[in-house]
């Protein structure tokens, strides 16, 4: 009898414990909103797939030096670019020696020595570069960011030379051990023999001797809705309030975060100033955090490349540049010309946590693109244009690019030459 009473008492205690737990979870103040937000928060997976950081780390161009002051350029997605880059990814580089950039006669090396020069634009942290190349850096080299890698051979020298350029501009790191032979370098250089010849005065930029063919495309386009972005960026989209600004921008806020939508530019800006810091911040960690944030809040509507990890006064700015194109013409950056913001994703991080996120609301259906081949000027025609432009400020860089133009329900990607000047200004030629 006593055992039966004990069993009943124990069952009652368990039941009362379950009832109490239910009220603690679902009936305490604030619990209703937590349960409601679980239903309101819908991750819009169809906005774009997630991406691995390794697929966003690649050179913006590849310069092939063939000796006798002859050169050619390969761009992302072109056949020889992919072939050479994939081979280099499998080769090891170690025992890095720190040297001054002045220790080398770069003009002579560029003009006389066969080699491959990889350009990484604004630079990439070494700890990220390790994800796509076989590097064994020491602690000093591991803290650097690299904007160029130059692999070359010297006549009557059996050793392959590999030099990594620091973004600081005055320091390079030479790999004393490189898993490459002189024959490997020559084989890679030979891929450029029958390609367009480029010339250069100082190595800053290269001009093709003939016209360059690119694809022009008209692609059906559509827009991500404001509701999609709200459900993707706010934990409880139902708690947001709408504000109309005088300039026509729409602002939505949950009192902590804000989403601003510019309907004319099809552009969104998300801000979370109250984001809790994650701790230690480095260029590599912030880039990884930025990739993960985009994966979770919108995804990638096309092919992107990590373009910059710039450090500001109190934040780090991480940018991803969108590319368009394919075999055999290569892919090139999509740049804005002031009429339309499109082709880039900007994030700001404070102490390792994303506090700002900007991107276009426009997306395209690349499978329905209508394409045609067009030509950009080269040779003396292009040189004359650059000489005229250079009177105001020296030309620093020249690269093919696409300018986006909205035409009804289609997005036209128009090929241009993007000219970057020494004073930082950019302009286009077509």
From TrEMBL:
CDD domains: YycH_N. Pfam families: YycH. Residues 3-421 form the Regulatory protein YycH domain. InterPro entries: YycH, YycH/YycI_2. Signal peptide: none annotated. This is Regulatory protein YycH domain-containing protein.
